[in-house]
Amino acid sequence: MEDTRKFLEKIGMPSGDAYDLPTSEKKFSDGAQYRFEVPGIQGPGPMKSLLEELDKYRLVIHRVTQTKGIMLLTDDEIKEMVYLAKKWNVELILAIGPRATYDTSASVQTTEGQRMGYRLRGQEQIVRAIEDVKRAVTFGCRGFLIYDEGLLWLLNEMRKQGEIPLECKFKISAHCGHGNPCSAKLLEGIGANSINPIRDIQLQMLASIRQAINIPIDVHTENPASSGGFIRHYEVPEMIRVSSPIYLKTGGSVAKTHSWETTSDDARKRAKQVLLVKQVIERYYPDAVCSERGKID
Q: Has residue 260 got a pLDDT over 80?
């Protein structure tokens, strides 16, 4: 085992989980340690309600993520969400639609088959996923939620070769099931701009992933009932300290499932969850630095 640990260190990887919980010295480009992301906002109506409610609380968020898929949004809905993102200076992340659960696969509906997650079956689904991205790009979206590592690699190649705008960003979903430094290093190497590890990842694991990569880590501060329903607000200060730069994914406990059809009322409840997390940070880690409004690079 010691030889294995030494080899990991030789190639620049952590030799194990970081139980000593070292403070991360890495930051966003503006020098901040953390930003807020609200996931599960499936359309322009709830998005507007969320942003207006956040204004009432005088809170700033930096990302809004839609999780059901671009293919389930009309052209006008995409345009409206892009408009709202620009008006409130937030980054909009749209999920790529074709995936196993929308496909004709019977396997993915079984206990065994669920292990494939939301990955794509066959090259035709890769083509369709690319078309989903191109459609959203046409209407001004530049941020995409990805569930398939092969699709990430392809989109990165397209980005490098000018087939899609260079400013497009790719966020890896927790549904890919990654939770270790080696996987994170691989994803960073093939084009990921941020990585969402497994939802129940522990602090020492987060700290070791941070040692392996430089891109932001996206972490759920709470979860829908379908993925455990656990709320981690009191862990947030340590999450920030050991794994910055970090996106705090907040508001998930309002939903029952990952693709929950968030209502405007649900969106306002998600805004309250951001307030609750912000208060925990201010109480237990007041020196933590949050990006200002509009910092979405």
A: no
DSSP 145: E
Where residue 80 falls among pLDDT bands split at 50, 70, 90?
A: very high
CATH number of the domain located at residue range(s) 2-284 in this protein: 3.20.20.70
**Structural domain spans, the chain:** 2-284
DSSP state for residue 270 in the 8-state scheme:
H
Q: How far apart are CA 14 and CA 21, in angstroms?
A: 12
**CB neighbours of residue 208 within 10 Å:** 23
> Which tokens hold the place of 19?
């139980």
Q: How many helices (H) and strands (E) does the chain have?
A: 9, 8
Distances (CA, A) of 184 to 50, 196, 253: 31, 9, 26
Q: Is the pTM of this model over 0.85?
A: yes
| Integer angstrom CA distances of residue 182 from 13, 24, 178, 193, 197 | 8, 18, 9, 16, 12
